[in-house]
Design goal:
This protein is of the alpha+beta class. It is built from 4 helices and 6 strands.
Length: 118
């Protein structure tokens, strides 16, 4: 999967926005204002940081050498996917969905209701 395909996949989700809050080098995807995916733009290799449960992150890192603790993030909750290391697109999509759903689950009831009505 390439960055353009990934962007299309993420932007098709309800309530998602893309921003550059940390400057022009990091693309941030948010759902209802909360971060669930980060894509550094200042590297040649396509990589993505996603949120997940500590248990799932541990399993992913044990299964794929291209998945490691995310740079500048809480490594217990965030993993970086180095896409040039053979991570299947299906794994990336599943983990993106998990990250999105985990963040949605943590939204206030009001924001969850707003999301439902979009």
């Amino acid at each position: 999967m390439h960055i353009d395909e990934y962007r299309d996949f993420v932007m098709s989700k309800k309530g998602v926005t893309e921003e550059l809050p940390f400057g022009p080098d990091t693309l941030v995807f948010k759902v209802m204002g909360k971060v669930f995916a980060l894509v550094p733009l200042d590297t040649e290799d396509f990589r993505i940081s996603l949120k997940n449960t500590p248990e799932k992150n541990q399993d992913l890192r044990a299964s794929y050498p291209g998945i490691q603790g995310a740079f500048h993030m809480n490594k217990l909750h965030w993993s970086m996917f180095l896409m040039n290391m053979g991570i299947p697109s299906s794994v990336l999509q599943e983990c993106t969905n998990d990250s999105y759903n985990l963040v949605v689950k943590g939204l206030t009831k009001k924001l969850q209701a707003e999301l439902e009505n979009l």
